[in-house]
Each structure stands twice: as structure tokens, then as C-alpha cells.
């Protein structure tokens, strides 16, 4: 037993690690380390271990590339391509004016600075209208503008229920442009003393992209963010006229933890819109109702022009993407904004002075509600609701009904005037187009062969810019029948 124990101890001792390779633990490395610098208040400041890139890195600016994820049609609008467009101030383009409307007919006009800002604030200049080709938005005063003045602008002194007009016409004929011209003519006629209420995309009201909440007091759904954004546009476009309109009654509200007490006659309608944030509040409010009542009161002295583009977006699909608590689709008239729009279009809600101007869109699926409501079609009792909403169509027929105006294409002389303007601004490219041998007509080939047999010299082709310009006008007018949307598209393809 003793021998085994001795052997075991011997083997254990032979496997022990030598003392010269054993790691020694010591605190001297940090005991004698240099202390961190102290601040004035006695606190230590730890030195950051970031790499010092030098003084040049502090002033270096990050370069932003000119690329975008958008496609070209959207990119030119997002990147503000109009800033690099040709300046046409030397062309003496006249401003659109109500007083000189007849003298500027069949000419290209622009908008003055005040009108242009108001239209931009209201988003009247829609996408894909190619305004980016020019340094300032332009339009042509055509026979349609004169008809619009006769049927609508001249009647703004009458109640809005008696002055309701809907613009009809093919795609690209210029219905949205006429809406902009109507607002510009109203500003010119009344020297800026006119209230503009414009809705550019009613689709946003029904597409289901906004929040909504039920207001038990008015028994309607409210869309806070949609209403807030729309009111913000109205405030920017009507700032000057809203500052002239005093409140007709006192009102108190709280915004950003601050209480406001606006007084009758002292504060203005602009103050109410500026300080009141209840339009976007996710709770039932009465701010929108108060605003409409104030505008109705002031419409006795100031005309109110209501313009709604793509109006058939509401009539072609009256059931929205929103749902009731029982998961049934909500009708657009169950919304505060939707009910407000239909009341204006039907004349149930009327301003003392003003008018309601509607415009259809051919990009929206055809429905029978609007044609029946305008009296163009007869109502078929076998129509289903998604084909024709009888209640909406019947509302449009009330109070004398909504008049309609078909927008016509441009004449050849107006097309030539439009092409002259595009040529002067560098948008139109008038250049020589050599004829390919494969595309020659049989008459041209026969004439050339006859000339060779007779030994006559072939006539050399001489490029004539004026002749080529006239060919462009003639060919594009024949193809498009004077449709301005088609004309501008064919021009941009070669731009």
C-alpha cells in the first residue's frame, strides 16, 4: 500500500506545471496608469476612442446624387425639372385676365405670381400635364374658355345652387386645365376677393388610406388627417381673403396645451384656421362645421368657387373601402366630407354667391350614376347599386339639376399657335427626317425610275424648316383631331 502511494505521488509530481511558465497576476499595470484628465467641476471625462479624421472632415459636405427611385414621368415632377426649363419672359406671354379674355383667345397665356401660387397650393396643376417643360405653367385660352365664362364665371353673383356645371369630354381634352382657368378668371374678376375651395383627388376620400372616427353628434364619420391636409391647402391659397373676414361669433378651443379665445369682429377666419388643430384631432370635433358656417355667412359679400376634379370617382363607386363595425362597406355620404361634397353638388348646401364646378375623369371606370344625375341617360330600374346609385343620381337632379358642358378639341389654327409657342421655347424639335428607301411610296419609286430612263437629273432634296413645321402641325392635328393631351405627348416623345 505504501509503495503504491509513493508511486502515485511520484507520477503526480512529474505532471505538475513548471513554475517558470505560470502566469502571474498583478495590479501594477493599472495602478501606475495615467489618470484621466479632469474637468473644471472635478468630474472625469472619458476619452472617446474614435478615429480622428482631421479638420477637413468637419467641413466636408455629403454629396447628394441626382438619382431617384421614381420613374421618369414622376421624377421630372419630384426633381423640379421646370427650374432648368427655358425662360420665356422675352416672348411677352400675357397673363390670363378676365377683362381681356376675348383679346387673348386662341393664344398661350400664363398665370400671374399670386394666381400661380394659389393654384399650386391647391394642387390644381396635376401630374402628367407636362408643366415641367416650361419655367412657368401655361395654358391656351380656347373657345372652351369663352363657353365656361358664359355658362359659369359670369353667374358667380348668383347662389351656388343655381350655378352648377359639370365638364365632360374625352381624355386629354383639357377639363382639369379649365378648372384652373376658372379659378384664375375668378381671381382676376373679383380682384382676389374670392374664396377658392378645390378638391383635386376625391379618390383619397374613399380609397381607405385615411383614419376615420364616428361623430355621434352629427351622425357622420370624420377623417381627421384627410380633412387636416385639405384645410391646410385652403389656408395657404386663401390666406389674403381669409385675413379680411372677421369671425361672426366667439369661439374657444385648446391647441398644444394652450387655450384660445377668439372674439367676434376682432379675430379673423384665418386666425381660426391657423390656431385650431381640431381638424386633425383623432376625436369627434365641430371645427369643420364651424368653418363651413362662417364661409356661408361671408358668401353674401364674397363669392365662393367650389371646384372638384375627378368627380365621377365618387359616383362610380359610392361604397368606400371603409367598414362599419359590422364590417359592411360605408357609403361615401356617411362621411362628413363626402356629405359636404354631395350637398354642394346637389344644391342642398348653397352659398349666397358662388358656383360649383365639377369635372369628370376618363381614367375612372364608367358608371351610370353621373350620366343619370346629369339627365343624359334614363334610369334603368334593373340597375344594381354598383352600376347606378339612385340616391346619389336623384340628389344631383334636385334644385334645377347640374348643367353639363362638353369640352371640345382645339382647332387647327390653335394647334399651330400652340406649336409656335413650343418651337419658341425649345420644346418642339423641328429637324430633317430623311426618308428611308423602304418607306418610299410607289409613286415616288415610279417617278425616280422614269427619271433614270429618260436621263433627267434627279431633283436634290432641300430641307425647308417652315415646310417641315407645317407637316408636323398637319400630321399631328390629323392624328389627334386637335386633342391637346395627345399633342403634348407626341411633342415630349421627341423632346
Automatic annotation (TrEMBL):
Organism: Debaryomyces fabryi
Family annotation (Gene3D superfamilies): P-loop containing nucleotide triphosphate hydrolases (3.40.50.300)
Basic and acidic residues compositional bias, start-end: 449-461
Region (Disordered): 442-461
Protein name: Small ribosomal subunit protein mS29
Subcellular location: Mitochondrion
One Gene Ontology CC term in the entry: mitochondrial small ribosomal subunit
Keywords of the record: Mitochondrion, Ribonucleoprotein, Ribosomal protein, Transit peptide
GO molecular function: structural constituent of ribosome
Protein family: Belongs to the mitochondrion-specific ribosomal protein mS29 family.
Keyword Mitochondrion set for record: yes
GO BP terms, alphabetized: mitochondrial translation
InterPro entries linked to this entry: P-loop_NTPase (IPR027417), Ribosomal_mS29 (IPR019368), Ribosomal_mS29_fun (IPR017082)
Taxonomy of the source species: Eukaryota, Fungi, Dikarya, Ascomycota, Saccharomycotina
Amino acid at each position: 500500500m505504501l509503495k503504491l502511494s509513493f508511486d502515485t505521488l511520484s507520477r503526480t509530481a512529474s505532471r505538475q506545471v513548471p513554475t517558470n511558465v505560470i502566469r502571474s497576476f498583478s495590479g501594477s499595470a493599472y495602478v501606475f496608469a495615467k489618470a484621466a484628465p479632469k474637468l473644471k467641476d472635478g468630474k472625469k471625462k472619458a476619452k472617446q476612442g474614435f478615429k480622428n479624421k482631421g479638420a477637413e472632415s468637419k467641413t466636408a459636405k455629403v454629396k447628394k446624387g441626382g438619382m431617384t427611385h421614381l420613374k421618369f414621368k414622376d421624377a421630372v415632377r419630384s426633381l423640379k425639372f421646370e427650374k432648368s426649363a427655358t425662360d420665356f419672359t422675352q416672348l411677352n406671354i400675357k397673363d390670363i385676365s378676365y377683362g381681356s379674355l376675348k383679346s387673348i383667345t386662341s393664344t398661350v397665356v400664363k398665370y400671374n405670381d399670386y394666381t400661380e401660387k394659389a393654384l399650386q397650393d391647391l394642387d390644381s396643376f396635376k401630374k402628367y400635364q407636362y408643366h415641367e417643360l416650361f419655367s412657368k405653367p401655361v395654358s391656351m385660352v380656347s373657345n372652351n374658355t369663352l363657353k365656361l365664362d358664359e355658362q359659369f364665371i359670369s353667374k358667380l353673383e348668383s347662389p351656388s345652387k343655381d350655378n352648377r356645371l359639370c365638364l365632360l369630354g374625352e381624355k386629354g381634352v383639357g377639363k382639369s386645365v379649365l378648372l384652373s382657368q376658372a379659378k384664375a378668371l375668378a381671381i382676376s374678376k373679383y380682384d382676389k376677393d374670392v374664396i377658392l375651395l378645390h378638391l383635386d383627388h376625391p379618390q383619397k376620400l374613399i380609397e381607405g388610406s385615411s383614419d376615420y372616427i364616428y361623430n355621434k353628434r352629427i351622425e357622420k364619420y370624420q377623417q381627421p388627417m384627410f380633412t387636416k391636409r385639405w384645410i391646410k391647402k385652403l389656408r395657404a391659397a386663401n390666406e389674403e381673403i381669409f385675413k379680411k373676414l372677421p369671425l361672426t361669433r366667439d369661439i374657444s378651443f385648446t391647441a398644444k396645451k394652450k387655450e384660445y379665445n377668439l372674439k367676434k369682429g376682432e379675430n379673423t377666419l384665418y386666425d381660426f384656421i391657423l390656431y385650431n388643430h381640431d381638424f386633425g384631432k383623432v376625436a369627434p370635433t365641430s371645427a369643420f362645421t364651424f368653418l363651413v358656417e362662417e364661409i356661408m355667412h361671408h358668401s353674401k359679400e364674397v363669392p365662393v368657387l367650389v371646384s372638384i376634379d375627378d368627380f365621377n370617382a365618387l359616383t362610380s363607386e359610392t361604397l368606400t373601402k371603409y367598414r362599419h363595425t359590422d364590417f359592411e362597406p360605408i357609403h361615401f355620404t356617411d362621411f362628413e366630407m363626402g356629405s359636404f361634397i354631395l350637398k354642394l353638388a346637389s344644391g342642398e348646401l348653397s352659398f349666397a354667391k358662388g358656383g360649383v364646378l365639377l369635372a369628370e375623369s376618363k381614367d375612372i371606370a364608367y358608371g351610370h350614376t353621373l350620366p343619370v344625375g346629369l339627365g343624359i341617360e334614363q334610369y334603368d330600374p334593373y340597375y344594381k347599386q354598383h352600376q347606378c346609385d339612385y340616391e346619389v343620381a336623384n340628389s344631383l337632379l334636385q334644385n334645377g339639376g347640374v348643367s353639363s358642358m362638353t369640352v371640345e378639341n382645339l382647332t387647327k389654327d390653335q394647334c399651330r399657335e400652340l406649336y409656335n409657342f413650343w418651337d419658341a421655347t425649345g420644346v418642339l424639335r423641328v429637324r430633317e427626317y430623311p426618308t428611308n428607301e423602304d418607306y418610299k411610296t410607289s409613286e415616288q419609286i415610279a417617278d425616280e425610275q422614269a427619271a433614270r430612263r429618260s436621263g433627267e437629273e434627279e431633283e436634290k432634296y432641300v430641307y425647308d424648316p417652315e415646310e417641315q413645321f407645317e407637316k408636323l402641325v398637319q400630321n399631328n392635328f390629323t392624328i389627334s383631331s386637335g386633342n391637346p393631351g395627345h399633342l403634348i405627348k407626341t411633342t415630349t416623345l421627341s423632346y
